[in-house]
Amino acid sequence: QVQLVQSGAEVKKPGASVKVSCKASGYTFTGYYIHWVRQAPGQGLEWVGWINPNNGDTDYAQKFQGRVTMTRDTSISTAYMEVSRLRSDDTAVYYCEVVTGIIYWGQGTLVTVSA
Amino acid sequence: EILMTQSPATLSVSPGERATLSCRASQSVARNLAWYQQKPGQAPRLLIYAASIRATAIPARFSGSASGTDFTLTISSLQSEDFAVYYCQQYDDWPQTFGQGTEVEI
């Protein structure tokens, strides 16, 4: 069965960077785009961007351009999202997601940005 | 960007009653529309995808329908565990966009 397993919670200081991983299993990793979505405390869901694991192409939401980098390692079926120059309003749960016809989500990674 | 508008923001219902949640897209998303349930501290749980297909292990009291750019999630007889926030999501075009959520409360 399809599974997306994300890395654990992180606590970072403002200005630092964080890299979250998403390990995929149960389907052909290079066959489907992986999306990243975030949810700030008490807020709704916000799309961050996608990566094409087949060739590494990416697309980011306008507000994240220049601060977010998505990469992948096809040898271990893992996608990564790095957010740099963290601010307090980047505190959120970050999810990876894949649409194979059905939609699958990772369990989420809480990133806390606090001085 | 496709705007997804959910209504109402809050829906007050009693257990056993029927609940009808709406989601409107600002342009066509075909049937590439999903519904999620989210409880505090939990990840969103997929209920419906492709506008009307129930996800695995989702009870039959949840159903989805579509008419053009209007989508509906119906919970036929609310159970206590159904009180939560519900989101719609279009995945027809990038960026994926979400509605602002409907809170179903007692």
How would you explain this protein's 3D organization?
The complex is a heterodimer of chains A (115) and B (106). Chain A is an all-beta fold. Chain A is built from no helices and eleven strands. In chain A, the strands form two sheets. In chain A, strands 2, 4, 5, 6, 9, 10 and 11 form a seven-stranded mixed β-sheet that branches. The model of chain A has no long low-confidence stretch (mean pLDDT 97). By secondary structure, chain B is mostly beta strands. Chain B contains no helices and eleven strands. In chain B, strands 2, 4, 5, 6, 9, 10 and 11 form a seven-stranded mixed β-sheet that branches. At the A-B interface, strand 5, strand 9 and strand 10 of A face strand 10 of B.
Low-confidence stretches of chain B: none
Percent in strands of chain A: over 45%
Oligomer: heterodimer
Tell me the number of strands of chain A.
Answer: 11
